[in-house]
Design goal:
Layout: E1 6-11, E2 22-28, E3 43-49, E4 56-58, E5 61-65, E6 67-72, E7 75-79, E8 81-82, E9 86-93, E10 98-102, E11 105-107, E12 110-112, E13 116-121, E14 125-126, E15 129-133, H1 136-166, H2 171-179
Antiparallel strand pairs: 1-3, 2-3, 4-5, 4-9, 6-7, 7-15, 8-14, 9-13, 10-11, 10-15, 12-13
């Protein structure tokens, strides 16, 4: 399915003849690009996708979009209003590492329409749903890298201290011993 509300194409036949779910909105044969080597005349077509649904929607009202509070690559916050038990569907691909919360309480992410993220919502009213991306392997790699850096710093400081002691200490401390 197309994930867009409208499409604009330049072609010989209207897109509705080959793509199901499109309604013609506008066509103009005069705007087609000149210089085409084809003997057939192309037109510019604007078509509406009747199967389009909002990116975030409630299962009970699929044509009504849900308000976005925050939309970043690793964090999406939505504010749906429900009239009872419902499911929020977010048209973003479900993948390992995504976590969800409904009204600041952890929630289990389910899969809708084969690959989209969804979360059940139980009480009626306004809610705050947050999806946060925290991939386990990335965090594990980050912690291992930090541990490695700390180990390297500890090793270098130990080696430096040992070399200073082996060389007789810091130059200023030898001067104090000579004065005694």
């Amino acid at each position: 399915e197309l994930g867009v509300k409208y499409i604009v194409v330049c072609r010989v036949k209207p897109p509705e003849t080959t793509i199901p779910g499109l309604n013609p909105v506008w066509a103009d044969p005069t705007m087609a690009s000149p210089g085409s080597k084809s003997t057939e005349t192309a037109s510019i077509y604007l078509s509406q996708n009747t199967r389009w649904q909002p990116r975030a929607r409630l299962e009970s009202a699929p044509a009504v979009p849900v308000a976005f509070v925050n939309d970043e690559p690793d964090r999406v916050t939505l504010s749906p209003v429900t009239s009872g038990r419902d499911t929020l569907i977010l048209a973003d691909t479900q993948a390992a590492g995504w976590r969800a919360s409904v009204d600041d309480a952890a929630a289990k992410i389910q899969t809708a329409d084969g690959s989209l993220r969804s979360v059940p919502i139980t009480p009626a009213g306004r809610h705050r749903i947050t999806f946060t991306y925290r991939p386990t392997l990335f965090l594990l790699g980050l912690y291992l890298s930090l541990l490695t850096v700390l180990g390297l710093i500890a090793h270098l400081s130990f080696a430096l201290t040992r070399n200073i002691r082996a060389a007789g200490g810091i130059e200023g401390s030898n001067v104090e011993q000579a004065q005694d």
